[in-house]
Amino acid sequence: MASARLSRNGRTLARGRVSRSGRLTLTTSRRLASGSYSLSIGSLRMTVRAR
Predict the structure, then answer these.
(1) Is 23 helix (H, G, I), strand (E, B) or coil?
(2) Following DSSP, what letter does each residue of 5-48 receive, concatenated?
(3) Percent of the chain, pLDDT > 70?
(4) Domain regions of the chain by residue span
(5) ∠ at Cα 42 (13, 47), nearest 5°?
(6) DSSP state, 24?
(7) Nearest CA to 22 among 36, 41, 9?
(8) What CA–CA distances, in Å, run from 30 to 22, 26, 43?
(9) What is the pLDDT of residues 23-41, one digit of tens each?
(10) Which stretches does the entry tag as region Disordered (predicted)?
(11) Helix (H) or strand (E) holding 50
(12) 17 phi and psi, to 5 degrees?
């Protein structure tokens, strides 16, 4: 399993794991605002948008 992190402006907003089957599960303590976020999975990093 790989660890995953969702961040914005250098702050981690959610953490989670990617299962062997490829399912991504993130846990956050508050609701996400719409906008662009950085999703890091292992050494891979990509930009995602929340609506």
Answers:
(1) coil
(2) EEEETTEEEEEEEE-TT--EEEE-SSPPPSEEEEEEETTEEEEE
(3) 100
(4) 2-50
(5) 55
(6) E
(7) 41
(8) 24, 12, 25
(9) 999 999 899 999 999 999 9
(10) 1-27
(11) strand 44-50
(12) -140, 155
Amino acid letter at 50?
Answer: A
Look at the block and give the residue holding tokens 């050494």: 43
Q: Which residue in this structure is represented by tokens 């250098």?
A: 10
Lookup result for tokens 């891979």: 44
Structure tokens at 18: 């990617």
- Structure tokens given for 7: 């961040």
Angle at 25 between CA 20 and CA 27, to 5 degrees: 145
Q: Which two tokens stand for residue 4?
A: 């995953």
3-class DSSP state of 2: strand
